[in-house]
Every structure is written in structure tokens, then in C-alpha cells.
Fold Trichome birefringence-like N-terminal domain-containing protein.
Amino acid sequence: MTLHAMEAPSGRSHGQPKTTKFVLILIFVTLVFLTIIPVFYPLLGYPLYLLKASSPKPSPTTVYDDSPEPELRSSIKISQGEECDIFSGEWVPNRAAPYYTNTTCWAIHEHQNCMKYGRPDSEFMKWKWKPDGCELPVLNPAQFLEIVRGKSLAFVGDSVGRNQMQSLICLLSRVEYPIDVSYTSDERFKRWKYTTYNFTVAYFWTPHLVKSGERDDDGPTQTGLFNLYLDEFDERWTTQIEEFDYLIISGGHWFYRPSVFYENHQIVGCHFCLIENVTDLTKFYGYRKAFRTAFRAINSLENFKGITILRTFAPPHFENGLWNKGGNCVRTKPFRSNETTLEGDNMEFYMIQIEEFKIAEREGRKKGKRYRLMDTTQASLLRPDGHPSRYGHWAHENVTLYNDCVHWCLPGPIDTWNDFLLQMLKMEGVRSHQERLYSGDRRMRFK
Ligand SMILES: *[C@@H]1O[C@H](CO)[C@@H](O)[C@H](O)[C@H]1NC(C)=O
Ligand SMILES: *[C@@H]1O[C@H](CO)[C@@H](O)[C@H](O)[C@H]1NC(C)=O
Ligand SMILES: *[C@@H]1O[C@H](CO)[C@@H](O)[C@H](O)[C@H]1NC(C)=O
Ligand SMILES: *[C@@H]1O[C@H](CO)[C@@H](O)[C@H](O)[C@H]1NC(C)=O
Ligand SMILES: *[C@@H]1O[C@H](CO)[C@@H](O)[C@H](O)[C@H]1NC(C)=O
């Protein structure tokens, strides 16, 4: 499946830090810290929206146990004994959005600059995510930057990960633009710095998460045939991340493409490679192994003290055909949660991620590694209207992914993923506060 994901972001990057209303912001942030202390409670296992859905679901193939889980999902405590899963909810109108445009933000990737390419409707920008039973605040850029002061955040994944990073840069641009501090001129490995806040954002391009290479640029579906070394680290990112405070790891769409799987330096099978005597193990096999190896890489890093956030699979929305067979996404409104359901490949990808995440978390916990889930799947599933469709390029341009129902227009629904991110960062603050209270001086305990 997909993509013009291989393409580099257009080089319209010139740092232009804005002067900030610094004192006001400080006062504001202090107030926010004093008022927002959402108490944070564990929410175990699978998300509520899978449990509450009415129709029977295909069950995952892998067995998982029900041993007690740590606080993997972010939830907000509403009242005694009641929690709110921020990832389960509905889209509601938001007249205040969007918070930036293609003229105020230079970080929008060419292929996600939908207004530039003539997208006629703009209602898709005017929604906000409303979790069932609580509120998810829209990202406050000053507050975000204050929380990440002196920290670093890396996006590890494919062009959808880059899409989220660019959304973040645009959302923060009301306060400050970062400067380019990349260590290479390779556009697939970017590093940005917010000088006022000493905050670094990086992007590591690794569409398969493991070591990979193109075996044939044509292949059975004319989208390339890839060699995936399923048990080998992609050192382009695994050697670079130790110093980071937060990793947001994601992946998905590239596993649709034909590929040959290697383990222990031998071909063990493939996904739709059509090579004689090579067993087709399906894309799910490659996907599971790739996540397993990526998490193993993280758990093996002695000096990595950061938090690993899995950003779950964001379903594509091709209708009336496959991506290369005339499929398109022409809706202009979100779904309500009762109008669609996670199923088929999307469900399988999602379940594989959750299962591998739990395994990794359990392993990592022994070594002091911390994992969190940013479960964007349901919110994204409900946004068939948020993709570029044919407005990711000029109509006459001959691009591989003509109708793009994978990436997200900016501004657009992907901005909400950064609302999730801020909420999760705030909860980390509460969590470490609680840990100090409970592990340290007993006299400081409440009650
Ligand atoms: C921004 O979008 C408008 C249409 O809303 C378009 O005319 C313009 O070229 C775009 N500008 C940039 C810098 O992308
Ligand atoms: C900036 O942050 C880094 C950690 O990301 C830290 O090592 C460094 O000392 C900080 N620099 C300043 C000037 O605060
Ligand atoms: C495939 O396997 C068959 C049976 O073992 C063998 O005769 C044939 O030569 C193999 N083909 C290739 C290309 O290895
Ligand atoms: C979905 O829920 C909404 C509001 O609760 C309701 O108005 C609508 O009829 C429902 N749609 C379906 C397809 O069940
Ligand atoms: C688009 O490009 C591909 C390969 O680059 C070519 O095979 C195809 O004929 C082109 N289609 C059109 C309509 O120009």
C-alpha cells in the first residue's frame, strides 16, 4: 500500500523564532500547574470502545493472559472509582479550530497541504475529540513547551509519524518556531530545537522499524519488493535514541507492500513476493516480528531512560476500491462511533501492536523501562474526512498514491494526537509526583 512516503519533506524550513509573551505565559503556566492535578488511575487491558461495541469482533489469533497490567493507558479520574479513557469518545464540532493555517505555519508537508491543492471544504478542520465522560483540552502551546523544557522527543516511524511531528510544530508555532539542528542533510532524519525552551524534536524515518532494503523497485504490485531483516535492528534509529526523554514509535502502512522476510540471515518466508518455494507468511507475520524487534532494541539500550510511547495504527479510509484501483476517501464529515467499527486488517494490525506492546512492557519493566500507549486508532477510524484524497498534489501530477487516504491534511484530525500527547505528558507529571509521595517520606502521604 501507499505512498509517496519515500519523498523528503520540502525544504521550506527556515527558523524564525517568534518573540514570545514570556512573562504572561509563565504566569499562565504556573496557574495551570496549580489547577490541573488530574488524578490518574490505571485502566487495564483493552480499550473500552472494543468492549462496548455491539457487533461481535474477530478475535485476535494470539492468546494473551490477564495478568495485572500497569498503567499503560491514559485515563482521567472523574470521581471516586470512576475513570475516563481519553481515547474512547466522539468528534464534536469546534468552531475555534483550526489553530494555524498554511500561511501561519511553514512546517506543513507539501502532500498534506490540502488547501493549497484546492480542497473545497474546510469543515474537516473544525472538530474536536470529546472522550466519553470527560474533556480533552486542546493543546496549549505555552503549556506544552513549559512541560517539555530541557527535554527531547523523537518520532520513530514512517511518514505518518512525520505528519504528527509537523502537526506538533504547527501547533507550537503560536509560541515559537524551532531551528534546524539536524546532524545530517538527509531529510529522513530531522532534528529541531526550541531554543527558548531547550526542547528538541527529532524524526527518524524507519518505515519497517527493522533493518530493511529494497530488493526490487518494481515487484509484484509495482510498489517495490523489500527485504525485511525481521530480527535485526535498524541502527539508523536504534543507535541514536538513547539520549531521548520520549520516543513515539509507530508503523503500519509499509507492511502492505510485498516483502521478503529474513531471520537469522535466512529467508523464512514473505508477504506476497510470488517467489517460487518461498512461503507466504502474510503481512501480519512481518508486522508482529518488526514490532517485537523494535521493542527488543529499546529494551536492550542500557542507557535509555526515556518513556516509549506506542502510537497505535491509524486506519486508512479507501472506499470503492483499493488504493491503486481507484479507491478514494470523499467524505466530508466524521463518523459517529456507532457508524463504523474496527475490523479486518485494521483490527489485526491494532491487536498485534497491543499484544507486542504488552510483551515488551513486561520485559522492559524488569530493566526499568517505561512504556505508554497513545491509542489513536479509534479517534482516527472515525475520521474518513481528514485525508488529502486527491488534494495532496496538483490534479495533473502523476504520483504513486494519487488518492491519499492514509496521511492527514494539516490542519486536521491528526492535531488531536498532539492533544493526547500533552495530556499524557501532564499525567506523567502527576504520576512522578505520586511516586515521590508514596515511595519517599511517609509523613507526606495524604490521609
Ligand atoms: C494556502 O492555501 C491557499 C488556499 O486556501 C492557497 O491559495 C495558498 O497557495 C496556500 N499557501 C501556501 C503557502 O501553501
Ligand atoms: C538542555 O537540555 C539538555 C537535555 O536535553 C541538557 O543536557 C542541557 O544541559 C540543557 N541545556 C541548558 C542550557 O539548559
Ligand atoms: C522448489 O522446490 C522444488 C521441490 O523441492 C524443487 O524441485 C525446485 O527446484 C525448487 N525451485 C527453486 C527455484 O528452488
Ligand atoms: C448513532 O447514535 C446517534 C446518537 O446517539 C443516533 O442519532 C443515530 O441514529 C445512531 N446511528 C446508528 C447508525 O445507529
Ligand atoms: C505515471 O507514471 C508511471 C511510472 O512513473 C507510468 O508508468 C504511467 O504511465 C504514468 N501515467 C500517466 C497517466 O502519465
User: Anything to note?
Assistant: Residues 1-46, 51-68, 442-447 have pLDDT under 50 and may be disordered. The chain is about 25% helix and 20% strand. The chain has one domain: 22-444.
